[in-house]
Amino acid sequence: MVSGNGFEPRIVAFLCRWCSYAGADLAGTSRIKYPPNIVPIRVPCSGRVDPQWVLDAFERGADGVLIGGCHPGDCHYVSGNYKARRRIYLLKKILPELGIEPERVRLEWVSASEGQKFAQVVAVFVEELRALGPRSVTSDA
Amino acid sequence: MAEELSRHPGVVYSTHYDYMCSDPGQELLKKAIKEHRLNGVVVAACSPSMHEATFRTAGEEAGLNPYLVECANIRKHCSWVHDPGEEATDKAIRIAKSLVEKVKGNVPLEPVEVPHKDKCLVVGGGIAGIQAALDVAEAGFEVLLVEKSPTIGGHMAQLSETFPTLDCSQCILTPKMVEAARHPRIRLLTYSEVEEVSGFLGNYHVRIRKKPTYVDPEKCNLCGDCEKVCPVRVPNEFDRGLSQRAAIYIPFPQAVPSSYTLDEQACLGLEPLRCSECARACEVGAIDYDMQEEIIEEDVGAIIVATGFELYPLENMAEYGASKVPDVIDGLEFERLLSASGPTGGEVRRPSDGKVPKSVVFIQCSGSRDPELHKPYCSKICCMYTAKHALIYRHLVPDGKAYVFYIDIRAGGKGYEEFVTRAMEEDRILYLRGKVAKVFREGDKVVVWGVDTLTGKRVEVEADLVVLAQAIVPSSGVTEFAQRLHMSLDEHGFLKEAHPKLRPLETLAGGVFIAGAAQAPKDIPDTVAQASGAAAKAVALLSAPLLTHSPEVAAVDEELCSGCGICAPQCPYSAITVDEVAQVNEILCEGCGTCVAACPSGALTLRNLGDEQLEAMVEAALEELEPARAAVEVKGG
């Protein structure tokens, strides 16, 4: 996905269907532009996201992984987002040992009414990953 | 894109069509399923939230199990948010390929069938709740109507007249209140709150706490002797604090149930030794200090939430002198001043000294449409009720002057524009377009500084009374209540509908419907219409012989399960029991998959979204593109 000389990060996003996936839908309905570096995958809940998936994504060449859930207190399944928060927190602790910068994993709360926020989250993440460069540089080391 | 997908392993047929969701598009899909004997379909088009059901039904009609049809969301997640070009096309391909990988791992499933309870719970006894309860009861189902205050009627009971017809609000409301109370299938629970809700679609268990009123409604004959002897005086909520009431009171004469209520907080003490004046005065012996709170537990199939609204608190409007200047009041207070049954008997008298105000300033959008300081949204009903206020005031005080400061006049509705025109022209109310900068007290006047943006001139009005059209906000306590029901709220705390246009009466919690201003500010006709709509939805659910539940739930591989029990506490629905091995109750499981991600032995899986499927989806999302494509890309760049 390298275009010109600029590095374009590849991002996999696990989006909960009730909030973040719907927020991304709203960004679409509202025609809010954001960079195309992200491939969304719909999951029922951020609590469904197994930290192993994040590692798999890096192994398969992702430069960043976004996990989108409902705001605290708003989880459609009551508390799946809290579980995701704990799991991702722990995952980020072990990532440096695998040679992966923890900043490459991002957990964000985006509600179904926050199309604008979804677009912003993606834009900022892409910007940060561009600055960080391709992941292979560090993981190969 | 269709060509690229046709080369993806496992894809036997790939084509392009402009309007997949149209009838010809669906026919195309059915034909392809039959001709190529497909055992999996990916429709790369709109969001699954929108059209998953459409395409799954089409698949089913062609003899394919509906759970083998998936939607790749290349419109809302791709073409609508990116500029056209190679990058966007690549992304669309990746999205579609990942869904192809998912479908390859999907298995045919049959919906889980669930019986349901046949009662309906209606929360909130305002006009929305009353209408919904009546409609559901008329359709033949039992209804529990729960209201937290001692009477049903809600805010509509406080209003003087209603726009644009100037019907007396209580006169059109009270027959409905009585009808609700007398209906053989409506059980009215006033002074009650829903404390707990558990369960799921069609099978909710509710726990309601009914506070003691200390007055037996069967015996109370509304003589009012108790009220006369009660030594306590507290602000009367029904009159928005413009009058006083005793500790034992009836909110208004037509209250339903028609009985007095003893306010435990205001009473000097429930022990007969402290006071007991009311009990001694009551000839029929209706007062019972030993009355206990009641806990009512019921199973219901559907829930209609009609918790209504409040006004944005006056104290937030410091710029308008609110809550410091006594003659700056809100719209509901003014309603009480206009009401024939209000604290002034329908004469407009200002709170500070009881004088009839000869000059009244009405300020619209007070707290609304003000993203910097207050609420960004339009509260919708204020343009109309302000016109009504000013018009009735001019009728009651013919020599009085009425000024309305407004930003825009939004009078969309049957007869609404005509009503505002009538107020402006026939009743000669002075409409000033512009915001008010400051309101302050000077002597016995309330001075209003503003700008008339149409003439560009500064305006100063020495008023006797200022009425603020306060923003509409959701009822307090609705946040906690929504969480109990797993309902979502929007950014302003209003209840969120399942879809803003196409499913405005439903919520994402199955079998829970919404009606009235709890969803967004709305006027009485819209509220009543929505309440009847929500009732129709509830009746449709209650009339179905069986409800179906998604089979995309968690499942256990008993061979792999070690019975460690890590999964069970992860489940918010207590759907997992562990007895040697874990077992999932398919009816209780909502399919969130939180347990699956926690299982250390990989024994748990989510049907049609297992770990292997997910891995394949990630791989497809990140797969290197073919050299031919890459070459094009370099050339294009």
Describe it for me?
The complex is a heterodimer of chains A (141) and B (637). Chain A has one domain. Chain A contains five helices and four strands; from the N terminus they run βαβαβαβαα. Chain A has helices spanning 20-29, 51-59, 80-94, 115-132, 136-139, and strands at 11-16, 38-43, 64-69, 105-109. In chain A, β1, α1 (20-29) and β2 form a beta-alpha-beta unit. In chain A, α1 packs across α4. Chain A starts with 10 loop residues before the first strand and ends with a helix. Chain B has 17 helices and 32 strands. In chain B, α6 links the parallel β4 (119-123) and β5.
Second rung of CATH, namely the architecture of the largest domain in chain B: 3-Layer(bba) Sandwich
Number of helices, counting only DSSP H or I runs of 4 residues or more of chain A: 5
Span of the ends, CA to CA of chain A: 22 Å
Mean pLDDT score of chain B: 94
Number of domains of chain A: 1
SSE series of chain A? EHEHEHEHH
Report helical residue fraction of chain A.
25-40%
Could you tell me the mean pLDDT of chain A? Answer: 91
Number of helices of chain B: 17
Gyration radius of chain B, rounded: 31 Å
**Strand residues, percent of chain A:** 15-25%
Number of strands of chain A: 4
Low-pLDDT stretches of chain A: 137-141
Q: Which outline of chain A best applies?
A: globular
Descriptors for this entry?
heterodimer; A: 141 residues; alpha/beta; 4-stranded parallel β-sheet; 5 helices; 40% helix; globular; B: 637 residues; FAD/NAD(P)-binding domain; Alpha-Beta Plaits; 5-stranded parallel β-sheet; 32 strands; 28% helix; disordered C terminus
